Amino acid sequence: MLPAICRAVLTSRRKLANQSFKRVFETFRMSDRAPTTPDKILDLAEAMFAESGYRAVSVRSITRACGVNIAAIHYHFGSKEALLKQIFAKRSAAINNARFRLLEACRPGPERPPMLEQILEAYLRPSLVLPNGDVGARRFMRLRAILAHEHATLSKGLISKHFNHVSGTFIGALMKELDHLPARGVYWRFHFLLGAQYFTLADPGRIQILSEGACDPADADAALAELVAFTAAGFRAPPADHHALILGTVLS
Amino acid sequence: MLPAICRAVLTSRRKLANQSFKRVFETFRMSDRAPTTPDKILDLAEAMFAESGYRAVSVRSITRACGVNIAAIHYHFGSKEALLKQIFAKRSAAINNARFRLLEACRPGPERPPMLEQILEAYLRPSLVLPNGDVGARRFMRLRAILAHEHATLSKGLISKHFNHVSGTFIGALMKELDHLPARGVYWRFHFLLGAQYFTLADPGRIQILSEGACDPADADAALAELVAFTAAGFRAPPADHHALILGTVLS
DNA sequence: GTCTATAACTCGATAGAC
DNA sequence: GTCTATCGAGTTATAGAC
Lengths: 252, 252
Fold this sequence. Notes:
homodimer; mainly alpha; Tetracycline Repressor, domain 2; DNA-binding
């Protein structure tokens, strides 16, 4: 008796929910916004992972935020990890395209900055500054930075798969400009550049505290200009002298 | 009947375990090594957090690795978070002391590197290079780096509490050497320095892949020398010109 | 003080009703 | 194809036996 009543109530509710979902769906279609359930999940999951990390965000919280059923992620993607991989596939192509386009636009010229600064800007701009006010790329790069620290084994494969090509190309371009440095030196400095970039994107709030609010990594244009200036000088420095450090003996 | 037998077996086992633990305990006491259960937990938890992150390591896995009871962490520390706080309290004092001692040893001199390089070495050496082969400080700094990205809210308070003083002192010392820079510029560059340091300590394996093994952040002396050279040049660079970037219009 | 047992959750994943 | 219900394994934390 009671089960039957419950079932009837639930069924009617489900139908109502479906109808209202269909209305929302149609609205999205009309205005060319991300409409389908998979796209909505992809977008919201990316935002939530970038905000709080991969492990801290459950599939339940994602589906709840999307207003879709708990089973939707497994139905459309197969697993939580597969969802993350899809996010990487979607975003990294766009960022890499932007980097290559900017790299092609680099050329020497009297009215232009030195080539080193141009190459660095070409590499850093797509991850730091949002084109057309799209928060997507920046958000994804923060996710990348967090994941690299939070879950090294998972991130290592993803980063290698999607970014080895573009990073290698830029390291090659940098080496051509830096013939005073051995290859090892260029790798080390590119590593420091990555660290500074990740830290800016992850934005753990340290610089705001230390500078009492004078600096904010969310100010993307300032961050880009400061980072290009800093790293360009770092790359131009003479090769490191591994015997120049003298404080090693102070601590008994 | 059976319960009584079981209980007897368990009790004898427990007594045996206690006896052998006491032997180990005495051995540790004799050789002045970390002996007590809390110290053992503190040390192993730090190692495991540094290896895999905070969230990924359960109190169960820590107690299991220590060979102590599951309840030991809550008995001795109160909670998983309190254990982490204890780790921070223990380590940060030692690192900060080392940094202050090295900073005091900095002075200009004809046979010495420039003051800027000395100050940077004083700041970076205690976190990168292990004194007396103790892996503790380095391991802890990796934990710091990971936690800052993995769990910003938890890390922010801990870092502020233990490191605001030393960071402020070093920023002040850097500003005295860098009168060509506005304060904002020094803050930005210190932020990049932190990012490069964290990335080196967290060591997500990126540089090894890109350099095909030519560089390894685990080579602490090389990392320190390269990082000092890179950041010193970065700090000496003229103030960033926020209008020097020209590729902003390439991506329509 | 040290242990077991378990409470009280949350997680990812899935089977099966609709 | 969308949903509910639930499985099984994980988690932190604690009460109470010893």
